[in-house]
Amino acid sequence: MRQHSGIGVLDKAMGVLHAVAEQPCNLTQLCQRTGLPRATAHRLAVGLEVHRLLVRDADGTWQTGPALAELAATAVDPLVEAAASVLPRLREITGESVQLYRRDGLQRLCIASMEPPTGLRDTVPVGTRLPMTAGSGAKVLLAWADTGTQKAVLPDAAFGERTLVEVRRRGWAQSAAERETGVASVAAPVRNSAGDVVASISVSGPIDRMGRRPGARWAADLLAAAEALHKRL
């Protein structure tokens, strides 16, 4: 679930912004996604439109506006900066694609990614949103998520609560042909300075190379990379 600042109007405005970012929508759809009254949703969306955080087309459909890109261009993300030092080494060790995911509501967002220079690979571009219902990265993020998020995701997931218990016990997760046919992956949690899990770092590639139990091969290197990120944070 999204975090709340305690400032009601700000939290509602952010809810509107996130709803439109997930998929452009009209006012009726916006109300359905946010649960806000029609008048409130309209007022907030128009306010965000004034600040160019949202734009509206001739059909009345809102989508994200240019001000978001302008703000993002000046943003500094310590996690992404740390990944720039850690992911290249992990890619070199494994020879596979490496990614860093952050949870965003009921989805996971790829915030850093590197691919091997040659050969068949699992390509996940930065900015890609994936469901939390499959894959090793999803298991890691969900294993340390709040109870409400787990209850919302698990009914549709390719794994169950027992899997999450096992992920928390051993400290990493793996998958084979779960998110995508022919792809295997292994992931580990990344913690901030307070010890909270803020991301998952993963290695993914063809099952033919990774095997159906990729954790046996790459878990130790992945845990070392996660610790390196933790130290940089």
From TrEMBL:
Keyword RNA-binding found? no
Q: Which PROSITE patterns match?
A: HTH_ICLR, ICLR_ED
What are the alphabetically sorted keywords of the record? DNA-binding, Transcription, Transcription regulation
Top-level taxon in the UniProt lineage:
Bacteria
| Residues covered by the IclR-ED domain | 67-233
Pfam families registered for this protein in UniProt? HTH_IclR, IclR_C
Q: Which GO terms describe its molecular function?
A: DNA binding; DNA-binding transcription factor activity
Where in this chain does the record put each HTH iclR-type domain? Answer: 7-66
Q: In its UniProt record, which GO terms are filed under biological process?
A: negative regulation of DNA-templated transcription
Q: Does Transcription count among this protein's keywords? A: yes
Q: Supply the name of the protein.
A: IclR family transcriptional regulator
- Organism expressing this protein natively: Speluncibacter jeojiensis
